[in-house]
Design a protein that fits this description.
The protein is mostly helical. It has one domain. 65% of the residues lie in helices and 0% in strands. It is built from four helices and no strands. The protein is extended, with a radius of gyration of 17 Å.
């Protein structure tokens, strides 16, 4: 499992924390569910993107940049 850091304003973070707590859930599980729902709603777009050669080329070029995010220093977060 990977770790992702995002910046959101304090008000939104507090609202998420209250909602998650009221439901007896962690913020991580709440955000995970929201991401799952977003991906599910947008799967058709993914199919379109992968068929587009320009997007494929852009994704290939960006692989090096994303590889920089996967490093041994971040391994400490893998067990969280």
């Amino acid at each position: 499992m990977s770790v992702i850091s995002i910046r959101i304003d304090d008000h939104k973070r507090k609202l998420l924390k209250v909602i998650a707590s009221a439901e007896g859930r962690s913020m991580s599980s709440l955000v995970g569910q929201l991401l799952d729902e977003y991906v599910q709603r947008n799967k058709a777009k993914l199919a379109e993107y992968t068929q587009n050669r320009d997007v494929q080329a852009l994704m290939k070029v960006s692989e090096a940049a994303f590889a920089e995010w996967d490093n041994d220093e971040d391994a400490v977060y893998d067990s969280l």
